[in-house]
Amino acid sequence: MAISGRTVALALLGVAVVVLSPMPGLTLVLVNVTLVVLVGVDVALAGAVRPLMFSRSGPTSARLGQPVPLVLAVGNGGGRMVRARLRDAWPPSAGARPRVHQVRIPPGERRFLETTLEPTRRGDRAPFRITVRSLGPLGLAGRQGRHYCPWRVRVLPPFSSRQHLPAALARLREVEGEVAIRGAGAGSEFDSLREYVIGDDVRLIDWRGTARRGAVVVRAFRPERDRRVVCVLDTGRTSAGRVGDVPRLDHALDAALLLTAVALRAGDRVSLVAHDSVPRLRLPGSHDHGFLARVSDAMAGLEPAIVEADHGGMVAAVLREASRRSLVVLFTELAPAVIEEGLLPVLTTLTARHNVVIAALRDPRVDDLATGRDDVRAVYASAAAEQTLQRRRDLTETLRRRGVEVVDAPPDGYAVAVTDTYLTLKSLGRL
Questions:
Q1: At the topology level of CATH, where does 228-427 sit?
Q2: Tens-place pLDDT, residues 319-368
Q3: Which end of the chain has fewer beta carbons closer than 10 Å to its terminal beta carbon, N or C?
Q4: What span, in angstroms and rounded, lies between the C-alpha atoms of 351 and 333?
Q5: pTM of the predicted model, to two decimals?
Q6: Rounded to 5 degrees, what angle do the CA atoms 410, 401, 285 make?
Q7: How many whole angstroms separate alpha carbon 292 and alpha carbon 67?
Q8: Edge-to-edge, what's the strand order for the sheet holding 327-331?
Q9: CATH of span 1-156
């Protein structure tokens, strides 16, 4: 049983009546009896909540930042009208609105209640329970019960860098055209024969084809296809740090999605590995276009682990995943604790078999601090920031001396910089 605010107000009114009555004892009894009778009648006439039937409909997945409209159908299987307040409880990160519904359901009928989710985090979101409070016709009291109607909404990464996809694909077409015009180079594959035009490299003339056709023809080339690209996500403690109020891991997911989309369009095979102290995710290599959706779905549940990353285990996982020479893009932090203590001791094992790119995210606040000269405090902050930037430059130089490509970009250009590096390496035939 549940009581409403009307019952409380009525009880307070009864107190006033008792205080002002010349016979407070008798009046108290009469007030109590009247209140109990009214509450009992209201409960008896309230619609039952147990016969209510619930079902849900709506999307089961959406990208972070997009509203998710859901419909909750409530059916009355009882014999009385149900006048109820219904609370459909979701976790706070689901951003469910409205939280409470007012509903009137005649016997044998259904009503449809709309709830909009505005999630603030990636991952799976599921409702807790449905609490129904059915009041009687007087609105004093009623019946209350709980129901469970399972549902799951998977909140995918926002893929904010999707806006850069047309430009990246245009660059890909340029890369393919440049290889065809430039001709044979490191890693390029023979495509076809075409007629010689003024300006073509004479070394590309195919003499056998020229003899067969009776006209000078040259060999045309295209970028290698069906190459291997391995995206490695470092989900250790450094990935939990926020840059622009967004975790580093989320920036890495966005960049990996753009890289995956472009590599798949280029005909390359992409695989995904997430690792910290233990493996968190592994998606074997694929080149079908449905792989991007599978990557996005798998990324939804990834969360940073507050542990030190095991770079030895990470490299071993990559070597198990990629048996052929591949482009390994490691999304991690460019910090001494990560690079010098963790990655450098095992880097040779990786670079001996694969081309490696370190994709690091630079915090623009450090760049801003480095320019501060307004007061003594700003000067000290500037010195510390400049020292941090110098360490990053030193680490970048150390990695490049070992044959590793390094991307160190701020959030607004991070995904584009990673993809541009991939396209540059592809144009040079270094995948």
A1: Rossmann fold (3.40.50)
A2: 999 888 899 999 999 999 899 989 999 999 999 999 999 999 999 999 88
A3: N
A4: 18
A5: 0.81
A6: 65
A7: 22
A8: 279-286, 269-275, 228-234, 327-331, 355-361, 405-409
A9: 2.60.40.10
